[in-house]
UniProtKB/TrEMBL annotation:
Residues in TPPC8 second Ig-like domain copies: 318-433
Pfam families linked to this entry: Ig_TPPC8_1st (PF24545), Ig_TPPC8_2nd (PF24544), Ig_TPPC8_3rd (PF24546)
Cellular component aspect of the GO annotation: TRAPPIII protein complex
Domain of life, per lineage: Eukaryota
Domain TPPC8 third Ig-like: 438-621
Protein name per its UniProtKB record: Trafficking protein particle complex 8
Residue ranges annotated for the TPPC8 first Ig-like domain, each copy included: 96-317
Organism the protein comes from: Desmophyllum pertusum
């Protein structure tokens, strides 16, 4: 302790003697800087807007709709006024850990967005956005920062002594070269805040044997080149006399033996890049590449996007659909345009359609034709902000629909917001905002479906034989554990059919019967009838949407957002591939059908405030082949040696049958209901007639009892 105090006195004495001869601050021995742990955030958001809603200029929002998913009505202003759970996304923080796999995915999405927006290949000088620079990132190029925006530096300091240290007036040292100038300006002896504003930490304490990170910021006020050279601080000897919290307990005096000794000095930041190991000279010696973390290019003003969500879910049921609100704010002095969103999972969200153009008295009709050319699911899509741009300081709010994954588990949903400036282009031609959502999904319901031919009792060879199908829909509740106690019952409120050839009609369950109830551990089977469309779609870009609704309000399955999630589902992808395969085949396969069912369901629970909350969901299932179809058996091949080449074989009865036609057709006839008095007998007798026919139209009748 005494030696450290003497060391400070000696340093101070040397500085006083050579003050007029030295143009640099001395390098202090304490604390020690861990150079490899230095990190840089070129665009740092100082204010934490979590849970706050500052006043901003709001442009016309497309959030308020009248006819949306389950006929709910959302008012943008009311919801925003009531909700305080706003979460800002995409802000880089020193608390974030570097993930190399995630970083590669960010770069890939950024490249795709750049190519999609600019409709051009990547330029040779393309440099991806890295939100936080560290020793693990590629620092071969100089990072870009925007004038009048904050740059944050994390410097890790270690105190090797067992006694605490106190650093006062801690700040960053920098050298700045203004644009179109060669003079180098430094803040080593004067602040020079007209060029770069520097944050000063009045007091920074480091306990004995402690490693502590200091977060320091600078703001460039002019364009040019900024180089962070080190840190500047005063090391006081008072901290050596006792604990950190007692260092100012003794008032300094001119004749006191315990008077404070303060030494002003610096510590240099010298970063090394990765070790080079390519050439022979590099392998035989220790050579490092260039690390430009602290060498920044200051560019002209750019738009600065802030994205906030209200009520974004972290837990969902499988296939659950919720609406959240997104707020987009331009926090800069430049106009923002060409706002796009890139994600590897475009199936989990949609902005919905422009429902504001619909009339309040619009009725939803069956057999709606929907153009499916817009169904191509893209990883890059434009954010529908009004007018396509945001003025400085303006905010717009959009409704976003989120759907839970079809399987239970924990999933990460990554999004990149890409945007450009409407003004003059600079070295920074665009900006991106990255964020990853963590969503946990729990089991809800499973839907399965099969289709069979409809058979009449007479089995006459009429057109109805090929123009009707019986569809069996199985709905099973898969909830378990705490979810099962929370969501006791599921209700199927509507089943819609999307097909080019078929429409859906009720059979075993009608609207007057109400919604279909499925409780924990149950499976409900519902029968529907599918009829061939009279005006069958000639174009593969058109679909018929038909609906069987069990509640009062019918859901617009052919409108956004329901149709968006359908076009993003695996059922649509399966149907699309089937259609492409059928086009390539020369023979029509009568056993294949193109029917996709959209099952809308609801469940409810009581929240902690004893309020009933409704959960909506949308599941999909595809039917591409009849359930009772068997493969046609062709005639066995006869060896060529057994028959002369000039002899023609007699035609077989099977040759006249289409190889793709069903060989076996059957139907069952039985009463729809049966009343039994089990008090007199425990045996119930049900008569079922099986009508069985082959391609030769030979009829067999059996009675089962």
């Amino acid at each position: 302790m005494w030696l450290a105090r003497v060391h400070c006195w000696q340093l101070k004495d040397i500085r006083q003697k050579e003050k007029s001869q030295v143009d640099k601050l001395p390098v202090l021995p304490l604390p020690i800087v861990d150079q490899d742990l230095t990190r840089v955030i070129p665009c740092y958001h100082c204010s934490n807007l979590q849970g706050k809603h500052p006043e901003r200029t709001t442009v016309n929002s497309t959030l308020e709709t009248k006819d949306n998913f389950f006929n709910q009505t959302f008012s943008a202003n009311d919801e925003i006024a009531k909700s305080s759970n706003w979460t800002s996304v995409g802000h880089a923080s020193f608390e974030d850990k570097f993930d190399p796999k995630l970083a590669r995915r960010w770069i890939q999405l950024e490249k795709e967005a750049f190519g999609r927006v600019n409709v051009s290949p990547l330029p040779p000088f393309f440099r991806p956005h890295i939100p936080c620079l560290s020793s693990k990132t590629d620092n071969s190029t100089r990072p870009l920062c925007v004038v009048r925006e904050t740059v944050a530096i994390e410097v890790v300091l270690k105190n090797p002594l067992k006694i605490p240290l106190n650093l006062t007036n801690l700040l960053l040292l920098w050298e700045f070269t203004p644009e179109n100038h060669t003079d180098i300006i430094s803040n080593e002896f004067s602040p020079r805040e007209d060029f770069v504003k520097t944050e000063v930490i009045k007091s920074f304490d480091i306990s004995g044997n402690e490693t502590k990170a200091a977060h320091l910021t600078v703001v460039a006020c002019q364009t040019g080149q900024l180089h962070i050279t080190g840190i500047k601080y005063s090391l006081t000897s008072v901290a050596i006399n006792g604990p950190v919290d007692e260092k100012f307990s003794i008032p300094p005096g001119p004749h006191s033996a315990m008077s404070a000794v303060s030494m002003l000095g610096r510590l240099d930041l010298v970063l090394k890049g990765p070790r080079l190991n390519n050439t022979k000279a590099e392998k035989t010696s220790v050579m490092h590449g260039q690390d430009n973390r602290l060498n920044l290019d200051v560019v002209p003003p750019m738009p600065l996007l802030e994205v906030r969500f209200s009520g974004f879910p972290s837990k969902l049921l499988c296939d659950e659909v919720v609406q959240t609100m997104a707020e987009f704010t331009n926090c800069s002095e430049c106009h923002l345009e060409k706002l796009y969103i890139a994600t590897p999972n475009p199936e989990f969200f949609t902005f919905g359609g422009d429902l504001a153009t619909l009339s309040e008295h619009t009725t939803i009709q069956s057999n709606v034709k929907c153009n499916s050319t817009l169904s191509n699911m893209r990883r890059i899509s434009e954010v529908p902000i009004p007018g396509g741009s945001l003025c400085p300081g303006y905010t717009t709010k959009l409704g976003i629909w989120i759907q839970g994954h079809g399987k239970p588990g924990k999933f990460k949903r990554e999004v990149v917001f890409y945007y450009q400036s409407a003004g003059t282009k600079s070295l920074m031609s665009y900006r991106v905002l990255q964020h990853a959502f963590d969503i946990t999904t729990n089991s809800s319901v499973a839907v399965r479906a099969t289709a069979r031919r409809n058979r009449h009792s007479g089995l006459q060879n009429n057109s109805d034989d090929q123009n009707q199908l019986i569809i069996a829909l199985d709905v099973e509740s898969l909830v378990q554990g705490e979810v099962a106690r929370k969501h006791i019952e599921f209700s199927v409120v509507q089943v819609s059919c999307a097909s080019r050839k078929w429409t859906l009609q009720p059979l075993s369950h009608h609207k007057t019967d109400g919604s279909i109830k499925v409780r924990y551990g149950e499976t409900v089977i519902v029968q529907f009838k599918a009829m061939k469309c009279q005006d069958e779609c000639n174009s593969s870009d058109e679909l018929h949407f038909s609906h069987v609704c069990f509640v009062e309000n019918e859901i617009a399955a052919s409108c956004s957002p329901a149709v968006d999630f359908f076009f993003r589902s695996g059922a649509w992808e399966e149907q699309r591939k089937l259609t492409e395969n059928l086009k390539s085949e020369t023979v029509d396969d009568t056993s294949q059908v193109d029917i996709s069912l959209i099952v809308f369901w609801q469940t409810s629970y009581i929240d902690k405030d004893f309020q009933k909350q409704t959960v909506n969901g949308q599941s999909h299932v595809n039917i591409n082949r009849l359930a009772e179809t068997v493969s046609a058996v062709t005639q066995p091949l006869v060896p060529q040696a057994d028959s002369p080449s000039n002899e023609t074989a007699s035609p077989s009865p099977l040759d006249r049958v289409n190889n793709r036609e069903l060989l076996v057709k059957y139907s069952l006839r039985h009463p729809a209901s049966l009343q039994v008095d089990f008090s007199s007998s425990r045996l119930a007798r049900l008569v079922v007639e099986l009508h069985y026919t082959t391609v030769a139209r030979h009829l067999l009748m059996c009675l089962w009892s």
